[in-house]
Write a structure and sequence with these properties.
Layout (H helix, E strand, L loop, with lengths): L1 E5 L14 H12 L5 E3 L4 E10 L2 E10 L6 H12 L1 H11 E11 L3 E5 L7 H10 L5 E8 L9 H4 L6 H19 L1
Parallel strand pairs: 1-4, 1-5, 5-7
Antiparallel strand pairs: 2-3, 3-4, 6-7
Helix pairs in contact: 1-6, 2-4
Length: 184
Amino acid sequence: MKIIVGLGNPGAEYQHTRHNAGFSFIDHLAEKFSMELRFDKKFQADFVKGEIVQKGLAEDICLFKPMAFMNRSGESLQKFLAYYYSQFFEEDEGNHLIVAHDDLDLSLGKYALHKGKGPKQHNGLTSIYEQLGHKNFWHLRLGVDSRGGERKVPASDYVLMKLQSDEQQLLKQAIEEVAASLFD
């Protein structure tokens, strides 16, 4: 079982922003596996559970997008995990959970997969850490920094800026690469 969470902010005004890189990853996987995300008010999230086949083996997968804004992502995720996976996760929580998120510590188009290690500061991850009580899960860090060393715009404003079309393409390529490495 893999539970893949993508962090972002709901609403049209946040589409194609750097902060929604995690949402973009989930949307890509949903399309790749022909899965349809549905909103559930109880969890304040879009999610889908299903089975995929990779390398001839079937695997259960869950795609999850918290819709309670970034700084409350952990509340949605904790409710969801407690409802569907409480017994399952008592044994080995960190090995089955992947949280995809934007990362200003990585250049746009780069990515990294680390267990228990995220960026220095990220409100969505902070919310998850607080709600789960640990950092022991996989962090899929999607690079979104294309400032080239210039830091005139505060990080909190920069991540909410829309990606230009060439930047969107770089992020899309990174998402496709990491999806292939995880699922092909």
